[in-house]
Prior knowledge:
The protein is mainly alpha-helical and 116 residues long.
Amino acid sequence: MSLTRDSGLKSLRKKYARAAPEKRRMAAQWEYDSSVASDLFSIALLKAGAETLPKPEWLPGFLALAIDPLFAPALLTVGSSEYQHGFVKEAMGLFLTLTKLPENEEDLAENHRQSR
Length: 116
């Protein structure tokens, strides 16, 4: 699923495009953390014996990236997902965006720690 091709994600991008950068970042962080928490909860339910779980509407990171297109954790997560699903051009665009972020971007250090 390409981030740029989904109409729901396009409307979310439009909604946050005019928001202050701090508001976009907070909303993106909330969505990103929520998707991680939801995945962990689903894993716990499966280990506890649940047979089926509802499928999430979006893959992890997609909502966060639609809200804030410069949110580093989502750039990495969505880029990886896009690449795995055959959207190589889109994935490379996301990965290259990471290289254009300021060196003092706090989430870049977080991405580096997670990749070790």
